[in-house]
Every structure is written in structure tokens, then in C-alpha cells.
Q: What sequence folds into this?
């Protein structure tokens, strides 16, 4: 089952305790390979966490998750429909991710010394460490939050940030290189979801590096935010958001109405700060002279539908309908999937933010010659032609204040588009509203 879109969704049900009550054959086999059985706790942490969150919030959720299945890494698009005491699962796409190419045994100068493992339980606490992965750990470290622990053990940077994000989402970790703070030892790290938790495998690497290569690893004086500060800031902001949402939604019991409103304000402010941290990290990345985007074979209709799913709740809050291309319209493109998704998320998020309630947003795709196009059209008041280039400037918000924006989203999006060999531009529709169009190569 290596195709992406499934003709018939794979279904199942999870109860409020996380037990897999019913499951189609494919989901049941996936759960068994992870060490679980029917009517027992679902053994795939990424799916179980999403299901329990949907039940807790009583909110329909849909998103991609990655799981490790034997020797394969899978990407599943899952829709969760909650009821008071259970959640119905629908897996609508199932994709086997390509294998990560590892260095051959004859490649030099790297030399693997030995393997070791860290195991974390379903809520992310360290429960086991073997080999050199246990070096420097004390008895109190077992049971600690894995994100906090790894932040104290390894050098901050984009590799650690990516690993922590993958652990939080329960997705696969593919070959990150981390340096231990205590002794400078370098490890190659892989991992993913396993039965009843998450596992990281460490391979110690000894490399002979030239002085010039070592000098290249020293960050420029102005390029420290994304590597050093962003990961440190994301953790406490994530805790603030989670705790404030728990208080504001009164999940632990009723509180005074004004206190619930305060909690929601705190969560919204923390979300704004978290988005700003992400924007500043992206800004630092795209302005590096050596920044490059990957070249993936992607399909723009798939991107459009994923964005609509991720922003469905926000759009519904404003009674805005997001219209996506028909599923039989396929527009291939060559671009980095994650960055393309980031651009379209930003465009649709802006359209929701600045469109009148009760209107519609249209995501359209097409191919013209050797180029692919995806556009986002809203029914707002449009953008003054004199400002249509200005809005792509850094920190430009056209005098708006208090709307939660940083003025970096469109600047970063255009830089990303150009890094992928494309372009991002805006024009006004004849019947009003703005049309943002991303152009990408299709071969």
C-alpha cells in the first residue's frame, strides 16, 4: 500500500482511554506491528495523541502524521471526528516515504563507533537509555520531559530544533547530527514512534575536520536567533499556550467567566509570540547566502487541500468557506513540499484574517507550459496598486496594528518562492479582493 490517496478511507474508533475499539484490517495490522492489539491501548503514539486531543477538545481535527512501521516510514493523512466518549478515525492517505540514503560503509572520514538508544514513553518522558546515550545521566533524569532533557544535553541549533519538533508531533527523525555539550562528542540521530513511546537511536561519529571546516561552523554574530534562541523560546511558549487553553476551556472545572477570558487572552498572546519566533527563525534562514530549498516532486492540489484542512476551524470561526480545486485536477510542481505548504498557509491565513466574515476564499491551481501556479483569491477590499510591492517588504504592515501579524510573512514567502526557482506576486480581482499567485517550475 504505497500510494498516497486511498480510494476507500481506512477507519477505526478510539475510546476516551486511548483503546483501539474497532479498526479496519490495515489499521489493525499497523497497530499490531507497533505492539498493540484490538481493545487495548492504541500502540501508535502519533495517532493516539491526536485522537485523545480531539476527544478532549470535542473538535474535529485533520492533519498529517508520520509513523515508523518496521523498516518503513509512513506519512498518513488522518481525520478525527470526536464524540463524547470516543473518536472515529479516517485515514484518507497512506504514503510510504522514500528511504533516507545513508553513507556507504566505504565513505570517509566518518566512522561509526557503536549504537545506543534513548526511549521515551507516550507523553515524552525518558524511560530508558543505553550505551553512550546514558553518559552523564543521573537517576532523577529518568522520568523527566524529553524535550527539556535533550535541550540540556545537546548543542542548540536547527538539528536539535527539528528533532524536538518531530518528537512532539510523533513523526520520524531522519539523520540529524547533534553535538553533546559535556564532551563535544558528535552523534548521528535517527528515530520515530515505536510501541508505547518514541525511540531515538544514536550513532557516535568521529570525523577529522580541517581548520577551515571548523571555522565554517562558527555562526556569524548576527545569525544566532534560529540556532540558539528559537528552541529555548518555543518550549516555554508551548507550555503557556497549553496551560492557558486548559484553563480557558475549563477542562479542569468551571471558573469565573472573566478568568476564562484572561486565560484565552494569554493563550492568544503566547501564540502571537510563538509565531513571531518562527518568523524570525525563518527570516534568519532565508537571508543566509547559502540558503537552498529542496527539490521535491509535489502536487499543488494536495497542498491546497492540506492547507484548507489545517485552517478549517479558523475559517469556520469567521463563517468563511475555503474552496479547493477538484480532486481530479492534478498540477505537479518541483519545489520543497514543506516550504510550499508554508507559503500557502500564510496566504490563506492572511486571507481569513483580512476578509469580511461570511465570504469565500478560493484556492486555484493550473499549469502553463513549464510552470505550475497556485493562487489564493479572497473577497476582501483588495490592495491598493501603490502598495502591491510594498507589502512584500520586511516588517511592512501598511499601518495596521493589533492584528497579530509581524510583517514578515509575505517577505519570507517571496524569498522562499525565489529560492525554489519561482515567484510570488499579487494583483486585484476584477470583482474585488486580492489574488496572490505562487509560480513554481513543474520539471
A:
Amino acid at each position: 500500500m504505497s500510494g498516497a490517496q486511498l480510494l476507500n478511507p481506512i477507519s477505526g474508533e478510539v475510546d476516551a482511554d486511548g483503546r483501539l475499539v474497532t479498526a479496519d484490517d490495515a489499521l489493525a495490522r499497523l497497530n499490531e506491528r507497533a505492539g498493540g492489539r484490538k481493545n487495548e491501548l492504541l500502540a501508535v503514539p502519533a495517532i493516539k495523541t491526536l485522537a485523545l486531543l480531539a476527544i478532549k477538545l470535542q473538535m474535529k481535527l485533520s492533519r498529517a502524521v508520520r509513523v515508523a512501521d518496521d523498516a518503513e516510514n509512513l506519512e498518513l493523512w488522518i481525520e478525527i471526528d470526536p464524540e463524547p466518549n470516543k473518536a472515529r478515525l479516517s485515514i484518507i492517505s497512506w504514503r510510504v516515504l522514500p528511504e533516507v540514503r545513508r553513507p556507504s560503509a566505504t565513505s570517509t572520514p566518518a566512522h561509526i563507533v557503536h549504537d545506543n538508544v534513548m526511549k521515551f514513553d507516550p507523553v515524552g518522558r525518558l524511560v530508558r537509555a543505553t550505551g553512550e546515550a546514558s553518559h552523564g545521566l543521573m537517576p532523577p533524569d529518568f522520568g523527566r520531559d524529553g524535550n527539556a532533557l535533550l535541550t540540556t544535553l545537546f548543542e542548540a541549533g536547527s538539528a536539535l530544533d527539528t528533532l524536538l519538533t518531530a518528537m512532539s508531533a510523533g513523526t520520524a527523525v531522519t539523520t540529524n547530527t547533534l553535538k553533546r555539550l559535556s564532551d563535544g562528542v558528535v552523534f548521528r540521530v535517527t528515530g520515530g514512534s515505536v510501541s508505547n513511546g518514541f525511540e531515538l537511536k544514536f550513532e557516535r561519529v568521529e570525523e577529522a575536520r580541517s581548520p577551515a571546516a571548523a571555522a565554517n561552523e562558527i555562526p556569524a554574530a548576527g545569525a544566532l536567533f534560529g540556532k540558539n534562541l528559537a528552541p529555548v523560546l518555543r518550549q516555554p511558549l508551548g507550555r503557556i499556550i497549553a496551560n492557558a487553553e486548559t484553563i480557558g476551556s475549563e477542562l479542569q472545572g468551571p471558573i469565573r467567566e472573566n478568568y476564562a477570558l484572561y486565560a484565552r487572552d494569554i493563550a492568544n498572546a503566547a501564540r502571537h509570540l510563538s509565531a513571531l519566533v518562527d518568523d524570525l527563525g525563518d527570516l534568519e534562514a532565508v537571508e543566509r547566502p547559502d540558503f537552498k530549498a529542496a527539490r521535491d516532486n509535489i502536487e499543488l492540489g494536495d497542498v491546497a487541500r492540506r492547507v484548507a484542512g489545517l485552517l478549517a476551524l479558523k475559517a469556520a470561526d469567521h463563517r468563511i468557506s475555503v474552496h479547493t480545486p477538484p480532486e481530479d485536477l492534478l498540477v505537479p510542481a518541483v519545489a520543497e513540499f514543506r516550504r510550499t505548504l508554508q507559503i500557502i498557509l500564510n496566504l490563506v491565513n492572511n486571507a481569513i484574517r483580512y476578509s469580511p466574515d461570511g465570504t469565500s476564499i478560493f484556492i486555484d491551481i493550473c499549469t502553463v507550459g513549464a510552470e505550475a501556479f497556485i493562487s489564493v483569491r479572497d473577497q476582501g477590499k483588495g490592495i491598493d496598486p501603490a502598495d502591491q510591492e510594498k507589502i512584500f517588504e520586511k516588517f511592512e504592515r501598511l499601518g495596521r496594528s493589533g492584528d497579530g501579524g509581524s510583517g514578515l510573512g509575505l517577505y519570507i514567502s517571496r524569498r522562499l518562492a525565489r529560492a525554489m526557482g519561482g515567484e510570488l506576486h499579487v494583483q486585484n480581482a476584477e470583482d474585488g479582493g486580492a489574488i496572490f499567485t505562487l509560480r513554481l517550475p513543474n520539471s
